Amino acid sequence: MLATRYDEVVGDQLFRGTTQLRTAWHPVVTAAAQTWDLDAAQRARTIVGVDAGGGSWGAGHGLLAQGDVVHGKEYSRRRAAALAARVTEWSADPQVAGRQSGGVTTAPTAYVRPVRRMAVRCRTKNGPWGVGVVVSAVPPAAVLDRTGQSPDLVQDDHAVLRASVSCYDQRGGGGATALTGDKQGVGLCARNKKRCAAQQMVLLLSTLAHNVIVWARQWLLPQCPPVRRYGILRLGRDIFHGSGFVVRDAAGRLIELVLNQAAPLARGLADALGTLLAPLHVAVTLGQT
């Protein structure tokens, strides 16, 4: 489970290869809430986004019942098609050409808490409409804030509907991108173990490496703004693999870091590391290596 606003992995669990997301995401969300030590009020302000693979509302009901704010997509295509058929008014999506959205008019009586349902449709390559249904327990004011829109639109049903669909669009890239970055940047798939416990340890170490890299990006950012756009792979390849050497005093204490001036972002890194290491009285300079 990824905190998408700052790319930190909050919960990471290993399951059997045959386990599907719709049965795995409830324990992962629960574990993440324990990691954050969230109380009931905090869980009510935490949006849990999940794609269609996790949209089995058996699991969704469990999360809704324990106070989580779920924002996901209906898992069943048949049920989504039936709900979309009840939409009385479709409107064009200004963000995605050819996509339309509309509110489901049938009351959502099957859920343990109030939710909103928004049908979305696009033309398939063969011509018919492909439909999906977004199911959301996120308050209208929150989806407007999440999508950068004015809170004055909270009474505008069409604006809230479009914001809810746009909010669902935001859920996807974070987890998949982080997983891809870890595979390439920290070699997540290069150290597979035969025993489950050993593989779990590899996963936890990879999670730690991921978070340290993300934290380091934040530490470097004030003096080296270009690292903002660097992912896990580029940070490891272009930043942490830079050449240089260290200087120690007679007692073995680190007193100076010398970075290769030909390395990418060398000057910005020297400024950032100099600021970070100043309390330790470690100098950071540029040299030719």
Topology as a string of helices (H) and strands (E): EEHHEHEHEEEEHHHHHEEHE
What level of helicity do the residues show?
Answer: 40-55%
Average of pLDDT: 83
Q: Looking across the biggest beta sheet, what order are the strands in? A: 3-4-8-7-6-5
Unreliable stretches (pLDDT < 50, length at least 5) are none
**How many E strands?**
11
Radius of gyration: 24 Å
Shape: elongated
Number of helices: 10
Largest beta sheet, briefly?
6 strands, mixed
Helix/strand-derived category reads alpha+beta
Strand content: 15-25%
In whole angstroms, the N-to-C terminal distance is 41 Å
What would your notes on this structure say?
- With 289 residues, the chain is of the alpha+beta class.
- Among the domains are: 38-170, no CATH class; 242-287.
- Helices cover 40% and strands 18% of the residues.
- It is built from ten helices and eleven strands.
- Helix 3 (57-65) links the parallel strand 3 and strand 4.
- Helix 5 crosses helix 6 and helix 7 runs parallel beside helix 9.
- The model has no long low-confidence stretch (mean pLDDT 83).
